Amino acid sequence: MELDPLFLSRLQFAFVVSFHAIFPVFTIGLASYIAVLETLAWRTKNPHWVRLSGFWIKIFAVVFGMGVVSGLVMAFQFGTNWSNFSYTASNFLGPILAYEVVTAFFLEAAFLGVLLFGRHKVPPGLHLLSAYMVAIGTFISSFWILSANSWMQTPAGVDMRDGMIHVTSWAEAIFNPSFFYRFAHMGLASFLTGGFVVAGISALYILRGHAVETSLKALKMSLVLLAVIAPMQLLVGDAHGLDTLKHQPAKVAAMEGAWKTESGLPLLLFAIPDQEKQTNHFEIGIPKLASLILTHSTEGTVTGLDAFPRDKQPPVFVVFWSFRVMVGIGMLMILVGIWGAFKVWRGTLLDSRRYLRFLTFMIPAPFVAVLAGWFVTEIGRQPFLIYGMMTGAEGLTPSLQGWMALLTLIGYAAVYAVVFTAGLYYLRKLVNAGISDLAPAGSDTGRPKRPMSAADDTSAPSAPAFFNA
Amino acid sequence: MYDFTYIWVGIIGFGVLMYVLADGFDLGVGILFPFAKNEEERDIMMNTVAPVWDGNETWLILGGAGLLAAFPLVYSVFLPALYIGVFLLLAGLIFRGIAFEFRFKAEPGKKGAWNVAFCGGSLVATFAQGAVVGTYIQGFKTENFRYVGGAFDWLTPFTVMTGFGMIVGYALLGATWLILKTEGELQARVRKWAYRLLMAIMVFFVIVSVWTPMIDEYVNDRWFGNVSWLWVMPALTLITAGLVYSWLRKGHDALPFIGTIALFGLFYAGLLFSKWPYVVPPNYTFHDAASAPESQLFLLIGILFVIPFVLMYTAWTYYVFRGKVTAGSGYH
Description:
The structure holds 2 protein chains of 2 kinds. Chain A has 15 helices and 8 strands. Chain A is mainly alpha-helical. Chain A has 2 domains: 21-176 and 412-469, no CATH class; 192-400, no CATH class. In chain A, helix 1 (5-44) packs antiparallel against helix 4 (124-153) and helix 1 (5-44) packs across helix 12. Chain A is globular. Chain A starts with a helix and ends with a helix. Chain B is an all-alpha fold. Chain B starts with a helix and ends in a 12-residue tail after the last helix. Classes of the chains: A mainly alpha, B mainly alpha.
């Protein structure tokens, strides 16, 4: 069998990025939540907020640590597997990615240590400030990385001279056409992820009868938030889709499974796209709805995949179905959020264990939705690496052979399996230890820079009882 | 347009040196792990680096991202050329990091696997770094700014030798660090290791110094073409090695570590002077490898703002964890 370095490199990158992305997408939302909790704690002096914040800071520490470890590989992968791309685009991508790293370090160096270990060592105001700075820092970090990604989707502000990309306008390149939509979409996705995890864990504690009063406060807060944010995400996602239609029509055609350019395009609920025959099997759709959504007219014309030569079409099946997974979960989130807010309003939250149990099952949902969304946008860009400027094949490392890519793919999978196991072990330990009755640990020895060691601070005498409840 | 290339040579050069020194000693402690007498000694050894090792490694990520921004040619030639080596380096570092956390949590008597992972990860990562240095010395097969060599061009007798040299060097850094941070019987034993490692590193120094001019005409010409002030450096190296030896004999705690740092600084400077101005030998200089001036400037602003903070925080961390580590005082 011929090992294709291009395919294997794409697979490897997809694997590493997917594995890495789930951590920051959670920490960005969680950091903001912690900042809110710290603010409440500071203003009301209510011990519930301090306990909650102490608990989530520990979770944050572990997830942040896993994000850093898995990100280590990414800093080098651009060069090992995509050296032509890295070199050609270095004048723009180099500084942008370096800023991302620099932001993360600045954040870690200055404020993360204080947030994790400094509650009893620094004045409360400074601790609160650290919470804000960490929250803002995670956003700045994602700002840079999403700018780089958006630029690859909708390049702007650059010239190609002698085979090298040169920046002609930093503002145009950084704030490229798809940037704001993507940033808003990812920001809300982070809040949704953080919100559903907090809601799920709080529901779990209520079901187990652990720290019920505190957990109920957290649950109510997150449900109200979700009821607002989940519908908002639908609107932002729609706007993002319309922007994509303008700049990357082939991607939208793949998302809709539209092989032919036509007016009155149906919204397909189910179909088996067949790239070979350039058609769908077993289509079930709502007539004219896709046209209505995309052009705001039932008879609007939507460009189909027939407008693109076959070698410029993205793989339709994966894009089509990833899109449906993302939207389906999104709809479910809206339902769960609004239902929950309604129960909060009626004061019936604790009446049914079923809803609470359902919330615990929802914990993985936002992660799946985020990954599905990334599959849509990244696979939908194929065969391009920099849309319209450079294909994946052109960006690949010339000296890379198939077996090398395969070997490291297997290797990274093995390494990440260990990291993931370690992370889950810590997280399980923290969740089982529960929300501490004492004020969060101040008895530590002031070790900074070691996010995962925050997990040690849990005193978990009664852990097994919670676990079996 | 201004040219910021030399400023960036300074920044990246400083970052690489910081990484080598900082992660060098904690990798060295991992390399020395098997020579400890019992688990208690291993606990102490690990505790001397536990608060600082992940901070030390941040310099590596900064270096990777900084290279892409400032010298993209280095990034896009070194990484493909050292493809397998880079994988080993990263895998080694990650396993080692995981071992750090898990060994402390493992029950007594079940630490063996984590000891192996910690030492093995350190050895592999260090060897890979030594091989990177060796590969830099022997040069890259490039065409039109692209690496066109094979998957194992980086693995030659010469680079295997530099890989082992690096292991010895980091072990010496680790040993002198342990002399600084420990006391009693363990310290006395580490001192004995340090003598041997010092001898061994000087042997490697001589081998590299003789072998490099033999495989590299450019280096040969630089050192033997016309005798210059450059020869001050090997002289300084010998003097420093002698000082470290006498400080070890006199029972100093801190000076051997500082002396070893100076020794590394001299090796590093010697390497750069030998190859200057080539950063992707034999074809490309620092200027060929640099990014566009506007890109260099754009990042420079942020870097100059951040580095002082990182340095201050690093200094503070080391200050907080100053002093000897003893059996009971581990913070785990």
